[in-house]
Amino acid sequence: MAHTKALGSTKLGRDSRAKRLGVKIQDGAKAFRGQIILRQRGSKYIEGANVRRGGDDTLYAGKDGVVKFSMKSKVGFDGNRRKTTVVSVA
């Protein structure tokens, strides 16, 4: 007989592809208008001056300039405070 008896098929082997998230342009580097600075899920980083947010929370440069990362304390809708990173282009 040329088959295996009563073992069934495996349920493994369906791992998804990596999404390549993270910072694409570092602090102090030059960015051009429309260039992706950071890919993320959610709002771990928030947009500052001359930075726009895409539909999938990607941050990209609104104008040519130098990328700057800074920290900021943010108050949520429930009154809790958290520190977040602001990305801007100067």
Total of DSSP H or I helical runs spanning 4+ residues: 0
Oligomer: single chain
CATH architecture: Beta Barrel
What's the total number of strands?
8
Please characterize this protein's 3D structure:
With 90 residues, this protein is mainly β. The protein has strands at 22-23, 30-31, 36-39, 45-47, 51-53, 59-61, 65-75, 81-89. The mean pLDDT is 91.
For this entry, give a set of tags:
41% strand; OB fold (Dihydrolipoamide Acetyltransferase, E2P); 90 residues; mainly beta; elongated; four-stranded mixed beta sheet
Summarize this structure briefly.
This protein has no helices and 8 strands. The chain is mainly β. A hairpin with a 5-residue loop joins strand 7 and strand 8.
Mind sketching the topology for me?
Blueprint: E1 22-23, E2 30-31, E3 36-39, E4 45-47, E5 51-53, E6 59-61, E7 65-75, E8 81-89
Parallel strand pairs: 4-8
Antiparallel strand pairs: 1-3, 2-7, 3-6, 5-6, 7-8
